[in-house]
C-alpha cells in the first residue's frame, strides 16, 4: 500500500494521522489497519487516552499467553530484550515466529505502538522505585551532561524507567521555583499556551471553511483546546522556572477562575456541596473504570470548570478519604465514598 492510500484509510480511525511521521504511518498501516477494520465490523471504535482496567487485564493476559507459547521466562525479557544481549537473538526469533505484534494487541482497539508502550510501563521492574534520593538526582544531572537526552541509556545506568528519568530531569534541570507564581511567570505561561495553541490551529486546514464558519469554529475550538491535552514539556521549556506539572496545575487554576469569574467553587459550604454532588453523580454513573467517566459532563456538578479540575478534586478526595485506595478498583473507591464519606459530608453541611 502506498503512503497516500495508507493515510487516507487510516484517517477514518485516526483523524490526526496526517500529523504523524511517514515512517510511523507505514508501521501503522502494517500493524493496525486490518485490526481497525475488524473492530469497525464489530461496532468498536478505536480508543486513545488512559487505558482502562479491562484493557490492562487484557494486556497482562496477552503477555502471559505469549510467554507460555514461546517459553521466554519473563515479561522483562520479552519487552526489554536489549537488557539481555546474550538472549537477544533467540528472543527476537521467537517474537517473529509467533507474531508478537498480533498477539500483544489482541482484543485491544488501540494503535499497536500505544499498547506496546503501555505493556512496557506495566512490566518494567524499574518503574516503581519511589522517590529519587539526592544522590540519584546528582547522578541524573551528571549522566545527562554526558549523554544528553538518551533516556534509554540513562535509564539503564540508573535502573529506572525511561519515562521516570526523563520526567525527573525536567523537574531538576534548572532552578525550579516552588513558591507562589509571580505575575511575570503567569504571563509567560499564558503566552506559552497561546503560542502552542496557535501553532496547532495553523496545522489544521481551515481553507475549506467560510469566514462565518471560521468565526464559529474558533470559539468552539478555543474552549475545547484550552481544556484539553497540551504539550506540557514544551510549555515548561517556554516558562523556564516551573516544571511541567506545575504549569498544568496553574493553567487549570487560571481557566477555572476565568470560567467562573473568580468565584470560589470549592470553599466552605459550596465546597462541601460540590463534594457531595461529585460523589453522588459518580455513584449514579455505575461505571467500572475512570476512563468511562465523562469528566466534561461531571464538571457541571461543581460549576463551569475544566475536566482536569474535576479530576484533580476527585483525586484529592480519594487520597484523603479512602484507606488503601491504591489497592481498590475504581468502583470500590466510589462505593466507599458513597457509603462512608457521603453521610459525613451531608451531616457537616
UniProtKB/TrEMBL annotation:
<dbReference type="InterPro" id="IPR009057">
    <property type="entry name" value="Homeodomain-like_sf"/>
</dbReference>
<feature type="domain" description="Myb-like">
    <location>
        <begin position="173"/>
        <end position="255"/>
    </location>
</feature>
<dbReference type="Pfam" id="PF13921">
    <property type="entry name" value="Myb_DNA-bind_6"/>
</dbReference>
<dbReference type="InterPro" id="IPR017930">
    <property type="entry name" value="Myb_dom"/>
</dbReference>
<dbReference type="InterPro" id="IPR001005">
    <property type="entry name" value="SANT/Myb"/>
</dbReference>
<dbReference type="GO" id="GO:0005730">
    <property type="term" value="C:nucleolus"/>
</dbReference>
<feature type="domain" description="HTH myb-type">
    <location>
        <begin position="124"/>
        <end position="161"/>
    </location>
</feature>
<dbReference type="InterPro" id="IPR053078">
    <property type="entry name" value="TTF1-like"/>
</dbReference>
<dbReference type="GO" id="GO:0003682">
    <property type="term" value="F:chromatin binding"/>
</dbReference>
<feature type="domain" description="Myb-like">
    <location>
        <begin position="124"/>
        <end position="172"/>
    </location>
</feature>
<protein>
    <submittedName>
        <fullName>TTF1 factor</fullName>
    </submittedName>
</protein>
<dbReference type="GO" id="GO:0006363">
    <property type="term" value="P:termination of RNA polymerase I transcription"/>
</dbReference>
